[in-house]
Amino acid sequence: MTSRISGLVGRVLGTAGVLLTLTATTALAEWPEKAVTIIVPWSAGGGTDATARAVAEGLEKRLGQPFNVVNRTGGGGLVGHSAIVQAKPDGYTLGVITIESAMYKSQGLAGVAPEDFTYLGRFNADPIAVNVRADAPYADLNSLVEAVKADPGALAASGANRGGLSHLAWVGMLGKVGVDPLKANWVASDGSAPALQQLAAGAVQVVSTSPAEARALVDAGEAKTLALISGERSGLYPDLPTADEALNISWSPLPFRGLAGPKDLPDEVVAKVGAALKDLTEEPEFQKFMASRGFSVAYQDAAAFQATVETAAAGLGEAMTAAGLAK
Amino acid sequence: MKLGDRIVGPGLILLGAGVILAAMRIPDVPGVRFGADLMPVICGGGLVLFGAALTRSGLREGGPWASLDEWRVSPRNLASALWVLGGLCAGLFLFEPLGFPLFGIIFMSGLMLLMGARPVTVALVAPLFVLTLYLTFTRVMFVDLPAGVLEGAL
Amino acid sequence: MMNPDVLSLALVEVLQFKVLAAIVLGAAYGLFIGALPGLTATMATALLVPLTFYMDPLPAIALIVSSTAMAITAGDIPGVLLRIPGTPASAAYTDEAYAMTRQGRASEALSLGFFFSATGGLIGALVLLVSGPLLARVALNFSSFEFFWLACLGLLTCALVSSPQPAKGGVSLVLGLLVSTVGLDVTTGQPRFTFGSVELSGGVSFIPVMIGMFAMSEILRGFSASAFDLPAPPKGEVYRPYRGIFSLVARYPMSLLRGTALGSAIGALPGVGGDLAAWIAYGMSRRFSRTPEKFGTGHPEGLIEATSSNNAGLSSAWIPALVFGIPGDAVTAIAVGVLFMKGVAPGPRLFVENPVMPTAIILSFFVANLLLFPLGYFAIKAARRVLSVPRSVIVPMILICCFVGSYAVNNSLFGVGTMIVAGLVGYVMERNQFPIAPVILGLVLGPVLERNFIMSMQISHGNLLGFFERPVAAALGALVCLIVLFTLLRALRRKPALPAGASTIQKGSNG
Description:
The complex is a heterotrimer of chains A (about 325), B (about 150) and C (about 500). Chain B is mostly helical and about 150 residues long. Chain B folds into two domains: about 1-70; about 75-150, no CATH class. Chain B is built from five helices and two strands, in the order βααβααα. Chain B has a two-stranded antiparallel sheet with strand order 1-2. In chain B, about 35% of the residues are buried. The model of chain B has no long low-confidence stretch (mean pLDDT about 90). In chain C, helix 5 (about 75-80) runs antiparallel to helix 7 (about 105-140) and helix 20 (about 390-410) crosses helix 21. Residues about 495-510 of chain C have low confidence and may be disordered. Classes of the chains: A alpha/beta (about 325), B mainly alpha (about 150), C mainly alpha (about 500). Chains B and C meet through strand 1, helix 1, helix 2, helix 3 and helix 4 of B and helix 9, helix 11, helix 20, helix 21 and helix 22 of C.
């Protein structure tokens, strides 16, 4: 009874929503006619924030209105992502989303699911790498994995919170070679910086994080990068082998950054932002900026981006179930 | 509001016990021995412990249980305090529809008048201060404050 | 690093017009942001990022360096005048400084704030110039075990210093720690105490709590009868910036040195340094003082030690970021980002291949800290006007600033709600002699404490002896255990004498 009523209410609201969107679309003959807000779910100064600001600047140049970046942080990105989902779908509030948006649902966190977004386009994707101390007795990924297989609890790995992408990439890879993800010792950390500190201090043995973040420590001779957890080699680090070739598996959890908005954005917005973003990613200046921070430029249009996110959500959901994290 | 340790102590013990119970209801994650519940349990334990210490010293010292003596003040002061509390709470609902400039001017003028400022001063200072602050935040520092009903006018 | 050629080359770099202009502009901007209650150094830096897109690397970094140094120092101004601390670090000594203002010594409190911040900053920069990479290497050896003990040390000192009754200090501390657990747990990503709210799952930010507990509760108290117990700051005070400052240097030279040394050492530890140094310094100052009973009554000694450690720690916080690319706080994280963007990759290779750059960055610390003296002079001169504004005007202005400041934290009304609740709770706590400062520190350091505790437990597989296995951790752990034992013994022994003594001290420290 209750569900029928709520279903009815939902349908009425849905119709109203469609009507609203229609009127919004007609009123919005020339989007954008005022400043657009770009919500960034991560803190100012981080990688996502830096790329978002560069993208916002590029969009501003192409679309003729200010694109203001607003950081809405907290809850492992949940607060910001949910602010994007809940924004009015008029095209004046968009956001930069990251792979975490595909994980909340499996984690049992309400408010953000892959189907809640209108996808506009992806501009970046970088694999996660396996890093160990420079003086560690592992020459390559295979010898490290053999050591983990021999005694999964002895080696402490870190890089993010339990259930964070770093963790899933690592235990997902171990799962593919037959190690029980629940037996592997994962030391939960708040992002990669404290994990790298632990690695340098000798308190953990493995850190899975992007090669860009480990670069300074690698240059210092304190750490070495063994391999990328990915299906294809990176243009920025052509010499790094991939876990797929080394271990003969297929596991490619790619963290991405892309533009999205709330559900039911007007088609005009999708088309205009998509075109502007494509144009921006082809601009040499933008490519130079991204390379300087160690980020690759990986454009995907709205449809391809949506497919990527859906595939990622499914694959990560499996890995999370295996690690006992899914609800 | 003054509360005797005889009330605060047991109150803290109850709070601590409640925290521990709530923390134990956080579901366990397989493979994690030290998880989300550890720190809240420690905090709850601390509250129970310190609450017990306060209860002991409170029972020994006696004194009043609770009193609101400090609020026997002039109606003007009481009204100001209530305006502050009520105004801030109302702000939670009015800030976005009214917008910062209008809400700020109303809230500030009311408090200034209650605190005994001359109407001329109020009429000058409140709009000037609020608008300056609004323009500084939105134009210089790019903090997005809602303009509300004045959208488009500023 | 002290290679004279490098030093002179770096000096030439820093003395360019565009670098100096960036430092001056950054300082003026930082002064403005820091003096507004509720706006923080982190926000100041984040807002500068788009601007740095168009600048050369050195001016860009110099801009960030000088605006942070100034914002953090200027954060003391509302603390001194209105009892609204600008940073968690300045919350350590806000009550002491405001007690001086109540006695009509606001200009002395402001002067010594600026003077010893600048001096501490200068000495700290010198230490870096001589021993930067070495310090970084030492800091890199700190694991979660050492961080855990350090956080314990800071929290303990804070709880013990801020109240004559350890139990009440303890309650405040635990409350702060408890509030810090609200939100998604970092270990497993599970929501804790969020009651299904997305806003709460983002956790409770310390800025609105700090504004509410200090500023709003003080305003509420001002309307109540207890306002008459303590004098309001007198109006006719004569402001003479830096007057009598050298006699303070002569009287408390050890405080300056200890504070600076402590700040430089702890500041270099990524993640905890900046906030902890001032608290530990204040506690240490009281421990070593010949007149510990004067602390909390408007006594300059602890202020000197805490403010000098504050700015000394500020510059060392850059060392792990520059040498190993591990940023310790939001400000250095932003700076690392800006450096990368400019094609200057932080890391030890920077010191070998391009030593002029890091040296020039440290030199810009010198210039920024030198600039604190003259800018402080004007700020103190202007501060007089704040206290001469009638109460019926300044109180509404403060409240509006509090409202906007808590809103701006995350662009949402949730911050405002947090501020109101914190204000009410803070009012009741203070009325009943529960200190407020430990709540703030507990809230700021709670996540640091918890993360490092959980990490350490995971690494040692739950064996508590593992916390004493590494030498530095063992020493820090022993120190913490000793302090706890000592406090317990003393609390048990002098019980009968406590009530009378407590109430007299409390009256002072409350003001």
